[in-house]
Write a structure and sequence with these properties.
Number of strands: 4
Number of helices: 8
Radius of gyration: 32 Å
Structural class: mainly alpha
Helix content: over 70%
Strand order of the largest sheet: 1-2
Shape: elongated
Oligomer: single chain
Order of helices and strands: HEEHHHHHEEHH
Largest sheet: 2 strands, antiparallel
Strand content: 5-15%
Length: about 290
């Protein structure tokens, strides 16, 4: 017990500088104390950030918000089985299309190409889901951390404003400055890596791929499709070779958008901040040597 008490006093003396006056007693953190406070706040910020990130990722996976890439062999086998069943159904339905009134029937190559497009759309949809959830989780974690750091920084600022800078404890000032830096860093990196824009990009890709798969399956089931070319709706008979070629070309155009890698970032926030800081710090005039007498 005596050893623990001695260690506590030594640690307290190492972190806190206690000053006893005639009518008051004050305790202010030492340099080591300031470093400990800052390190503790940064560590809590990292725990909050990654805690929110993994929580959101886990909830997204558990709720199956979208169909992402398989995480293990069992999911991969289920994905392949579902895709194979979809391709078999499409092949069967195309084989049952009526060719009455059709000049040139579709070819096996066109059927194979349509099935390949379904496979590419399924892969693009799953990739867009995985990347979108990744950026959404990071975005939500950055917003949560920014909110918590902002509340802490404003609370510290309110206490400092009430007591005055001279009378405020240095620990409160340290908390306010560190929280402000955490807030600035979280928001800056969120903008720099384009978490919001990247999430929106891959969200649109997922919706586009998912809608195309549903549209193709419905078109094959009905034997016809309606597409908009030059703002004019066009009716396609999927049993006709020219109409099937038009549908395949239409899907190819959408596949170029889905398969195009898009990773954007916004560095304007950091550049504006750099220019602001640069405006505060300006080089002085060079010192002239004294004239020789």
């Amino acid at each position: 017990m005596v050893a623990w008490t001695r260690c506590y006093r030594q640690l307290r003396g190492w972190l806190i500088d206690e000053q006893v006056g005639e009518s008051s007693r004050s305790a202010r953190p030492t340099l080591a104390g300031h470093l400990t406070i800052s390190a503790g706040l940064i560590l809590l910020a990292m725990v909050l950030y990654w805690g929110v990130f993994f929580t959101v990722s886990g909830i997204s996976s558990r709720w199956t918000i979208c169909q992402g890439q398989p995480m293990n062999s069992d999911e991969r086998e289920r994905q392949l089985a579902d895709l194979n069943n979809r391709l078999i159904n499409i092949d069967t339905r195309i084989g049952r299309l009526s060719t009455v009134g059709v000049d040139v029937s579709i070819t096996p190559g066109q059927t194979q190409r349509l099935k390949e497009q379904i496979s590419q759309l399924d892969q693009g949809r799953r990739l867009a889901c995985t990347v979108g959830v990744f950026y959404f989780s990071h975005r939500y974690a950055a917003l949560s951390l920014s909110t918590a750091a902002g509340i802490l920084a404003l609370s510290s600022l309110a206490l400092i404003s009430k007591q005055g800078w001279e009378k405020s404890n240095n620990a409160i000032i340290n908390i306010g400055i560190t929280s402000g830096l955490v807030l600035y860093s979280a928001w800056t990196f969120s903008q720099l890596y384009g978490q919001a824009s990247n999430y929106e990009n891959y969200n649109r890709k997922y919706v586009l791929a998912n809608d195309l798969i549903s549209t193709i399956e419905s078109a094959v089931a009905n034997g016809s499709a309606v597409i908009s070319a030059n703002q004019e709706p066009t009716n396609l008979n999927l049993a006709s070779k020219p109409d099937m070629a038009t549908l395949i070309s239409h899907v190819d155009e959408r596949l170029r958008v889905i398969n195009k890698p898009e990773f954007t970032g916004d560095a304007s926030f950091a550049e504006d901040s750099f220019q602001t800081i640069r405006g505060f710090i300006k080089p002085g005039a060079p010192q002239q040597p004294p004239p020789n007498r």
